[in-house]
UniProtKB/TrEMBL annotation, chain A:
It comes from Echinicola vietnamensis (strain DSM 17526 / LMG 23754 / KMM 6221). One of its GO terms (molecular function) is metal ion binding. Signal peptide: none annotated. InterPro entries: NasD-like, Rieske-like_NirD, Rieske_2Fe-2S, Rieske_2Fe-2S_sf. Keywords: 2Fe-2S, Heme, Iron, Iron-sulfur, Metal-binding, Nitrate assimilation, Oxidoreductase. NCBIfam families: nirD_assim_sml (TIGR02378). This is NAD(P)H-dependent nitrite reductase, small subunit. It comes from the Bacteria. PROSITE patterns: RIESKE.
TrEMBL record, chain B:
Keywords: 2Fe-2S, 4Fe-4S, FAD, Flavoprotein, Heme, Iron, Iron-sulfur, Metal-binding, Nitrate assimilation, Oxidoreductase. It comes from Echinicola vietnamensis (strain DSM 17526 / LMG 23754 / KMM 6221). Homodimer which associates with NirD. Its cofactor is FAD; [2Fe-2S] cluster; siroheme; [4Fe-4S] cluster. This is NAD(P)H-dependent nitrite reductase, large subunit.
Amino acid sequence: MIPELEKYKTADTSNINNWFKAAPVTAFPENGGACVKYKELQIAIFNFTRRNEWYACQNLCPHKMQMILSRGMIGSVEDEPKVACPFHKKNFSLKTGKNINGDTCDIAVYPVKVEEGYVYVGFEE
Amino acid sequence: MTKIVVIGNGMVGYKFCEKLRAQATEGDFEITVFGEEPWPAYDRVHLSAYFSGSTADDLMMAPRSWYDENNVDLHTNEMIVKIDRDAKKIISHTGHDYAYDKLILATGSAAFVPPIDGVDKKGVFVYRTLEDLDAIIDYSKKVKSAAVIGGGLLGLEAAKAVIDMGLDAHVIEFAPRLMPRQLDTAGSATLQAKLEALGIKIHLSKNTKKITGNGKITGMSFADNTNLNTEMLIISAGIKPRDELAKDAGLTTAPRGGIVVNEFLQTDDTDIYAIGEAASYQNMVYGLVAPGYEMATQVVNQLVNTEVKPFMGFDMSTKLKLIGVDVGSFGDPFGEIEPSKPIVYENKNSGIYKRINVSMDGKRLLGGILVGDASAYNILLQMTQNNMPLPPEPEDLILGARGGKEAAGAGVESLPEEAQVCSCENVTKGAICSLIENDGVTKVDEIKSCTKAGTGCGGCMPMVNDLLKHQLKSMGKTVKNVICEHFDYSRQELLDIVKVKGIKSYNELLDQFGQGDGCEVCKPAVASILASTWNELITKQDTIQDTNDRYLANIQKGGTYSVVPRIPGGEITPEKLIVLGDVAKRYNLYTKITGGQRIDLFGARVDQLPDIWEELIEAGFESGHAYGKSLRTIKSCVGSTWCRYGVQDSVSFAIEVEERYRGLRSPHKLKGAVSGCIRECAEAQSKDFGIIATEKGWNLYICGNGGSKPQHAQLLINDVDRETCLKYIDRFLMFYIRTAEPLTRTATWLNKLEGGMDYVRDVVVNDSLGIGEELEKEMAFMIDTYACEWKEVVNNPELRAKFKHFVNADEEDPNLKWQEMRGQKIPASWG
């Protein structure tokens, strides 16, 4: 179980060595998320249309180790963009990955860029 | 920087650290805490919750991260073995020593084990730590019965644990009654009757002499020459303060145990304090958490140099729920300290006993006992502690409002400012009202975080809520329940806005009337409002829906979904049953029959949902809306068509009702039922609306529900015909949809509604607000615009395409794991 979590590490934006071409912009809903496969990882990508921002994080919710975060509702708490896990509504910051409302661990977040209608996710390795 | 060392990381030790950090200037104190248990401080009061599902994590007072974040150096699993007062240092079992400037002894107590012959046999446990509980749970797997020595608070908690483990339970008490320190003979007898009704066997006036068995316990024998066979024993016969460290260091300890302290909680050594169960003040040890917290508070006050209130003893009034029975004991429960006259209400039929002790001049309340119904506890305690004048007929206090009005002189408004509303955290009425009046506090959550009131046992919350409402009302403000930080409106207001302004999308509403970017609270709430107003296909705004509504299915462990087609009235043809069986077989779905009289198919991957539904729709099924805050089912019993007792055709009516309201979305789920006669086999009285056949027509009941807080529905009207019945249901449902808070069942809505059932009857049956026709029209619109949402999705390629796990691959979720049970699949356990 825990080894599964360790596969996901927040990518430092100044150290991106690999921009993964995930999917076209049209594959993603507005103000919501979808899941992409990258090697053996599952990455949740969120199109925060209201803020004109994109975010990505691990699809794995550390609370009960479920691959589900991409299906969660996004929103904000004060000004921090967040996603709420569909199962038990654990809130995670989409900027830092911090678990906002509880006692579970933080998640990994990755930078996203959009070029010529395609969404890319940045990884360090 | 003053070095504070705390020995003991129990509830009181933890509270001390929490309060010191909250009040001290940063950098003034270095805090180090030693706990001998492996876990950080946990809630020992609610220990029995461990048997009904709570985990160790759930019971933590604060997670380890709290200690890190608050600069408290926590050492768990480390026992202190010696205090060197001259060198001002303590030595732990690891051999390390630690220096202190001030030492706080919060070593608590150990379970008292009476010196019974055979007490060291296997299968004998005490009931104090999580470790004890784990050992008990482990041993319980091999036995069928267990006895508990001790019929006091803790012993009865342990007895509940025995029942929760599925064992035969016996309670052994030395005294002639249970809870001898809190209850009198009659009160105790009332409690005993309730416990015996639950299957717990009570043995009073029993002095255990011997524990028998060869190596492990098989029974007990008592001084009166009787015996009891039992396979496990839990000893809960009191506590013994852990004063051994203090004794060894030369500090005075009390003859009955406990480290002697003065009213400032100081021991003989001015640098050493003792708090909690380890401390003895005037030869009394305080075994409740509230006095322990008070002790911690006063030591903190001394350390940070603020006003100190000397500890002069503590009111041991207590209210708790023991095995589902409410018990309260306050002031002088036996009326012995000061001469008094008791007023007693005893109802053996309903298992209620209430006693109040009134002063000889009839003016003051001195104490009392409540068993079976302790709802008056808070106000009675306030009256006792604050010497509040009694009403002219003091028996009103325990007999309740008998004239249809609230009991006079028993509201929060008559409490004085110094009245202690929250005893765990010592918060007065004045403190709370000041927050509301001067600091602009308008929500209960704010009161909780500012004062900590309600964060201990939570028993004061009804009073805190009442106080908030009352204070705001007196300031001319009413309490408005805004739905979240993104909207400054209540649900009713948003519903009105949506209707009047013709707003059809969440984004529109947020842009024009909200702030920020929304959240998982307001999105589904607004989605529900939009659905109840415009009845448009919800998947068009899929990202504002809660997960179940987004995929029109109920999410399960592992991330697959369940499929529930509608089976109106619970009636199905053999052909349709075969279709369901066939679909389940081919898609390898786990099948189960639901409480709503329909069939649930589990284990469908998100990408399989549209395919499954396409087949079901082809066969004539529709969505069952099992996933929505919406109408679910109308159950039925077979009624007059087949049943020899049935007086009306309940199945036909149930089908008609279910097809009328299918697809309706509401503040919370709606369940109905139709029974064909008075025997009520469809259990209509536990539904949001329930219809029961009579010779003359139908009786309509509303606002019931099952679940964790069951409540019976109440009669709205009797003996009406089919059409009238439907008209009233239309009005009732629409009225509820218009006025309820988010996620409030009809029962809770009714309980909170001023005027209650009489008011609802007035509005719905007598049309007192003149909105009857309007409500019926709104319902007619819902019925006319109904369309099966699965049918719409199945026939719309764009919507169908959203049902995928990955958007960049056609693979299914590689994480899905299964195991087998009784020939069907279930998800592998989740972590």
